[in-house]
Amino acid sequence: MVRLCRICLRKYGNFVDNIRLYVRAGAGGMGLPRLGGHGGNGGDVWVVATEKMTLKRIKDKYPQKRFVADVGANSSVRSLKGERGKDKEILVPVGVTVTTDDDKIIGDLNAEGDRVMVAKGGHGGCLSSAFLPSKGQSRQIKLDLKLIADMGLVGFPNAGKSSLLTVLSSATPQIANYPFTTLKPQIGTLLYEDHKQISVADLPGLIEGAHLNKGMGHKFLKHVERTKHLLFVVDVCGFQLASQTPFRSAFETVHLLTKELELYKEELVSKPALLVVNKMDLPDAEEKLAELKEQLLNPEDLCSTSLPADMIPKSHMTFTHVVPVSAATGFGVDRLKSLIRESLEDDDTMATEAFRRERLQLLRQRSR
Ligand SMILES: Nc1nc2c(ncn2[C@@H]2O[C@H](COP(=O)(O)OP(=O)(O)OP(=O)(O)O)[C@@H](O)[C@H]2O)c(=O)[nH]1
Ligand SMILES: [Mg+2]
Questions:
Q1: What CATH class has 16-145?
Q2: 184 CA to middle of ligand 2, Å?
Q3: Residue 181 DSSP code
Q4: Strand 66-68's sheet: what is its strand order?
Q5: In this structure, what are the phi and psi dihedrals at residue 139, rounded to the nearest 5 degrees?
Q6: What's the gap in Å between 179 CA and the centre of ligand 2?
Q7: C-alpha distances in angstroms, 123 versus 38, 73, 86, 110, 120?
Q8: Which residue owns the Cα nearest ligand 1 atom 9?
Q9: Ligand closest to the CA atom of residue 180
Q10: What is the dihedral of CA 96, 102, 107, 109, to 10 degrees?
Q11: How far apart are CA 2 and CA 93, in angstroms?
Q12: Using CA atoms, how far apart are residues 94 and 148, in angstroms rounded to an integer?
């Protein structure tokens, strides 16, 4: 089993969530001095979001990852104004952030049809430029995909995140009794009787040391950066990766998960969260739950734990609810489904406000 884990440790399935492309806009066309002609402008390169595309498909379809727009036509005796070069559109999935090679944001494409220009076509030659055209802009750009979901499942491997998503939604993620079953993030949709839909992202398991690239690492946490809420999932009986690694109780796993979030991006710890205590069908689960609840009342009191000092988080998650469930028997699942909706709705106005502030800050940074 351990060998199996090692094989899949560094892999991220065949899921591609970032890609680097070369883009070049068209050069302008030449002007014709004798008749005061004007060359056509070069075409621009645009990145356009569509639900139908994936980064993997871009990689497969365009192995050279080069996107070049057409040049503008020269002016001629018959056409004093040369025709404009055709634009190039790169179709990308919704949820992509486009950045320059040195990580400056060019644009966020969060909805179908959102578009951003990534290379501007050159000007056609004309009188003011001595009839000489200018080159089109060329550069490397990076596309970084962040899934857009309302909730993100965060937990140690084997805690039952994928099982939970299966009983909550119609998603069919892979489930198995070994760590790191989930290799690529996946989204499931929770459907409510009044047709309300809530999306939940299932992520690979985090382990202590994920920030040091242990297990699946923690890069996939970028997919919870945009989720409104977090759903922490812990196994009521705790977790042990292998016989040589320490056993961690449910209380310890909460701390370790918090620490890994903090080490990835401190703001994640301040996201609203629910704590789901799974596997309540196992023997002694009730006593362990009672113990966990007791410990959570005083999270700073770590006397009962053997966590190394560098794995103790600076701050603690505040859980709006602690929800015992069993993905195996269905116990508590309906209540969890309602609580997920309730907390998202409670938080909707606050979240919109925070999102607006974030956008405003981004726009200000960009206009500087
Ligand atoms: N007894 C019991 N077993 C459960 C429960 N939920 C999940 N399991 C089992 O726990 C194991 C792990 O479940 P997964 O849903 O794959 O766990 P995960 O958190 O998605 O794991 P990774 O993808 O590896 O991070 C499987 O064998 C499940 O059948 C539960 O409520 N009770
Ligand atoms: Mg899983």
A1: mainly beta
A2: 9
A3: -
A4: 66-68, 18-24, 138-145, 96-100, 105-109
A5: -170, 170
A6: 8
A7: 9, 11, 13, 31, 9
A8: 160
A9: 1
A10: 0
A11: 35
A12: 8
CA distance 26 to 134: 9
| CA 137 / ligand 1 centre spacing (Å) | 51
Q: Where in the chain is the domain with CATH 2.70.210.12?
A: 16-145
Question: 355: number of CA atoms within 13 Å, CB side?
Answer: 11
Among the bound ligands, name the one nearest to the CA of residue 181.
1
The two most distant CA atoms of the chain are separated, in Å, by 93
> Which helix (H) or strand (E) covers residue 155, if one does?
strand 151-155
pLDDT digits (tens, 9 = 90+) for 28-67: 999 999 889 999 999 999 999 998 898 989 999 999 999 9
Amino acid at 116: V
CB 178 within 8 A of CB 172: no
Superfamily of domain 151-360: P-loop containing nucleotide triphosphate hydrolases (3.40.50.300)
Render pLDDT for 4-32 as a digit per residue (tens, 0 to 9): 333 333 344 566 788 999 999 999 999 99
CB atoms within 10 A of CB 211: 17
Q: Predicted confidence band at 359 (pLDDT cuts at 50, 70, 90)?
A: low
Place of tokens 């199996």: 4
How many C-beta neighbours within 10 Å does residue 8 have?
17
CA dihedral in degrees (90, 92, 96, 98; nearest 10)? -10
Using CB distances shorter than 6 Å, the residues near ligand 1 are 155, 157-163, 175-177, 179-182, 204-205, 278-279, 281-282, 326-328
Distance between terminal CA atoms of the chain? Answer: 53
